[in-house]
Amino acid sequence: MSKSAKTYTLLGLVLLIWGIIGFKVIKALSHEPDIPRMQVTKPKLAQIATTKDSFSINADYRDPFLGTLPSTKKKVAQRTIKKEPVQKRNIMYSGLVTESSTGNTLFFISIDGQQHMMAFKEEINGVTLVYGNDKQIKVRYGGQSETISLQ
Question: What is the mean pLDDT of residues 62-82?
Answer without folding.
Answer: 73
